[in-house]
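Private note to self, pasted from the team thread so I don't lose it. Backbone tokens:
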């Protein structure tokens, strides 16, 4: 019965075979019942009854064992087992009227909840997979994807020898090793480096070299040759590779002590912001981008955030030349964008979960916009006052079919078709063209995918070059990647490739066309996978003529492909460095150009629709729209918040939206206020999810509302406030820090009522200032001693301040201060 059900689901190509005498044994009761039921529905008879639980073992119709669930058949009322309606595959197009009836069954069984879900936003990859019209359950069962994948890429000539091709396939069958990256500038990362290179993480260190076979152990079905070692293929990234995959690390932690210690080290390092788990090839785009301190960078498709954190480390790093001209960190900016609201929220959570420093988070802006609709920014130089358009660097790690990630997501191979890449090509091209428009003259844009498909890689790169250089001659060129990361094994970009569609889809399209035309003469031959066929097309005209889905001219190799120097692109195949597959191309913008983005028809269908009220996140709004919050800040902190000035601090303050505009008109205050980087203006049209640092949070003291300053923003705001600063001696500050650290270690907090420094413990000078301040939030500043000033100690004001409170019994450090921030301040004092 199951076999017949699946055969019918394959449509006329397989269902027609039922008329053959050799297939008579296949058409059993299941197929006959399915056809009979479909005809009953077509005539308007009573639909299928719901499931009933029949108990007892008495006689009569429906006799079953106790507790079993049964469906009642529609024909005679006899007990018949039917597959769940939601699991029914697309109906075959037969001549007996079954197709329309079965399609109605599936439509009727769709719940209202599922229909509502269709209105929400879907990411581009998910939408392309849904539009492929493949019954994934049957697709996986018959292993079509595996066969089509091999046939498609053999035609592309990615590899020139059979042994190397077999080596790549064997690599794709093995799971991906765990890799991670240490922070580039964090001093604590050096301690982790020493620990990772110690003898503790050497497998079987006590055994002799002759016992190497005995030292190796089996973990997760894989031979463990080593615990952890540096990733020698990209030493520039400070990357490390574990000797086993993710599941092996989890299982091996129970039996191998070194793996257990390494797993705990990874968890701790992520919490402390010292390391980030990231695939090796995922580190390549940022390395190829060559970001510098103070750069303004756009990450167009940033989620889940691993590359964003890598960019933050680059733009907020130390001075490269201690004697050269310094670039102020206030100009550093990373705009991390994602079109999907859920993924934008995930991106913000990822950065928060990895506990990045206040300097890094102060340079971050998270937005939620379609990549091809991002506005062109106008930046002002803080020193000279000059303005320029565009970002210094743009990263376009576009949504793709992801067949380079098969080693960590094997399901991609089982459901693989060329249709997904063909559909995503248009949105990838639009994002790439917009990235060039957003790039400043002299800047660099990196286009990357985790796909092996030239329809997503070289075809997009070639079309970007063509459109840009047609509008302005020699405006954009490819950067030669041969000297980038010399230790990395790579393949050059392709100058010739082939485009295919899935013949099952194309034939359906031809069947519904007004004019019934024959299949094209295939110059390359057809590749079959048990009835599912790749149809190769030699040109865009032929593809359009014969009804190829998502056909467009830019998919195919241009006539001048050799002159475009596409070999400068970087292709990473899985077996070359024991990684996933990846593609990187770097563009340099020589002249001002805004390439036309004539959107293809399929772009609008990929994005989906985001209905009002469906967004899972709340966008930020400029604080200048809330007059009451501005008045509270002026009164409490004495902040110069000039509404008219473009360079005013007010232009950098944002508040949580929360859908409260009407309530604010009645006096409601925003719960949180954020301090954005200087490069983000309140006049921007971007939808902002997160902007820089938490600056203030709303608190209530004796029925009065006030704003407590967050410790992350204290170093940047303390020079802009005129009230609420209390000076204490360095000794008193160290006492408060030590007591606060002890409370954090013991997980005990007395709240704003308690005190880290009692009033009777304070000096007379401190008590005199203490008595003048009202109870509530303030900023604590450590006074320099006379001897320290005489020695000329270069201590700046932001280095010795911390957010605090005045309580009924004394002074207290604000709970927003982390243990690491307090420890660093303690050592500076």
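Design output:
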């Amino acid at each position: 019965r199951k076999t017949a059900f699946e055969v019918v689901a394959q449509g006329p190509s397989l269902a027609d075979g039922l008329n053959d005498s050799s297939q008579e044994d296949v058409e059993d009761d299941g197929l006959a019942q399915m056809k009979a039921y479909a005809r009953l529905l077509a005539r308007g008879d009573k639909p299928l009854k719901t499931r009933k639980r029949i108990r007892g073992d008495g006689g009569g119709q429906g006799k079953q064992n106790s507790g079993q669930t049964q469906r009642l058949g529609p024909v005679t009322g006899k007990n018949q087992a039917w597959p769940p309606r939601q699991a029914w595959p697309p109906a075959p197009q037969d001549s007996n009227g079954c197709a329309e009836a079965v399609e109605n069954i599936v439509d009727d069984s769709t719940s209202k909840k599922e229909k509502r879900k269709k209105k929400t936003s879907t990411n581009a990859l998910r939408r392309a997979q849904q539009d492929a019209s493949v019954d994934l359950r049957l697709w996986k069962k018959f292993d079509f994807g595996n066969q089509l994948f091999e046939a498609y890429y053999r035609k592309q000539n990615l590899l020139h020898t059979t042994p190397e091709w077999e080596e790549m396939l064997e690599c794709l069958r093995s799971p991906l090793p765990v890799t991670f990256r240490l922070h580039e500038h964090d001093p604590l990362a050096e301690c982790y480096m020493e620990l990772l290179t110690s003898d503790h993480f050497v497998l079987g260190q006590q055994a002799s070299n002759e016992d190497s076979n005995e030292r190796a152990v089996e973990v997760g079905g894989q031979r463990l040759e080593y615990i952890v070692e540096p990733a020698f293929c990209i030493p520039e990234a400070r990357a490390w590779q574990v000797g086993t995959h993710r599941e092996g690390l989890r299982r091996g932690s129970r039996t191998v002590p070194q793996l257990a210690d390494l797993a705990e080290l990874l968890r701790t390092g992520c919490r402390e912001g010292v390391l980030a788990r990231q695939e090796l090839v995922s580190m390549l785009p940022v390395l190829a981008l060559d970001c510098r301190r103070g750069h303004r960078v756009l990450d167009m498709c940033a989620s889940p955030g691993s590359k964003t954190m890598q960019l933050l480390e680059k733009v907020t790093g130390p001075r490269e030349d201690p004697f050269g001209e310094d670039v102020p960190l206030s100009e550093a900016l990373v705009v991390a964008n994602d079109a999907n609201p859920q993924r934008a929220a995930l991106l913000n959570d990822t950065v928060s979960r990895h506990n990045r420093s206040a300097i890094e988070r102060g340079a971050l802006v998270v937005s939620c916009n379609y990549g091809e609709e991002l506005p062109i920014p106008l930046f002002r130089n803080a020193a000279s006052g000059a303005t320029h358009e565009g970002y210094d660097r743009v990263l376009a790690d576009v949504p793709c079919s992801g067949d380079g990630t098969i080693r960590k997501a094997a399901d991609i191979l089982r459901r693989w078709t060329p249709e997904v890449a063909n559909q995503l090509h248009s949105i990838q091209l639009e994002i790439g063209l917009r990235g060039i428009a957003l790039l400043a003259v002299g800047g660099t844009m990196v286009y990357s995918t985790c796909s092996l498909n030239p329809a997503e890689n070289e075809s997009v790169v070639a079309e970007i070059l063509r459109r840009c250089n047609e509008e302005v001659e020699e405006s954009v060129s490819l950067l030669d990647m041969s000297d980038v990361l010399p230790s990395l094994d790579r393949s050059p970009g392709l100058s010739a490739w082939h485009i295919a569609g899935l013949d099952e889809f194309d034939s359906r399209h031809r069947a519904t066309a007004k004019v019934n035309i024959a299949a094209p003469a295939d110059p390359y031959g057809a590749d079959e996978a048990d009835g599912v066929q790749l149809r190769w097309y030699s040109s865009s005209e032929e593809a359009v003529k014969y009804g190829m889905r998502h056909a467009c001219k830019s998919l195919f190799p241009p006539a001048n492909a050799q002159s475009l120097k596409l070999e400068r692109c970087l292709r990473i195949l899985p077996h070359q460095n024991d990684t996933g597959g990846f593609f990187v191309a770097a563009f340099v913008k020589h002249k001002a150009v805004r390439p036309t983005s004539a959107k293809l028809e399929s772009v609008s269908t990929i994005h989906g629709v985001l209905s009002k009220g469906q967004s899972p996140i709340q966008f930020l709004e400029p604080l200048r729209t809330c007059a009451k919050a501005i008045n509270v800040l002026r009164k409490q902190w004495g902040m110069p918040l000039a509404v008219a000035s473009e360079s005013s601090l007010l232009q950098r303050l944002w508040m949580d939206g929360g859908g409260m505009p009407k309530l604010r008109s009645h006096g409601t205050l925003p719960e949180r206020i954020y301090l954005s980087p200087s490069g983000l203006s309140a006049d921007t049209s971007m939808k902002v999810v997160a902007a820089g640092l938490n600056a203030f949070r709303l608190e209530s003291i004796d029925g009065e509302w006030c704003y407590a300053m967050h410790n992350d923003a204290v170093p940047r705001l303390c020079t802009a406030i005129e009230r609420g600063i209390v000076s204490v001696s360095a000794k008193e500050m160290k006492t408060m820090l030590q007591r606060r650290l002890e409370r954090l270690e013991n997980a005990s907090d007395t709240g704003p009522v308690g005190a880290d420094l009692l009033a009777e413990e304070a000096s007379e000078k401190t008590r005199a200032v203490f008595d003048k301040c009202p109870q509530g939030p303030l900023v604590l500043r450590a006074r320099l001693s006379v001897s320290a000033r005489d020695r000329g100690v270069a201590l700046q004001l932001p280095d010795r301040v911390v957010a605090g409170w005045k309580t009924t019994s004394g002074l207290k450090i604000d709970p927003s201060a982390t243990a690491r921030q307090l420890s660093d301040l303690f050592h500076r004092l």
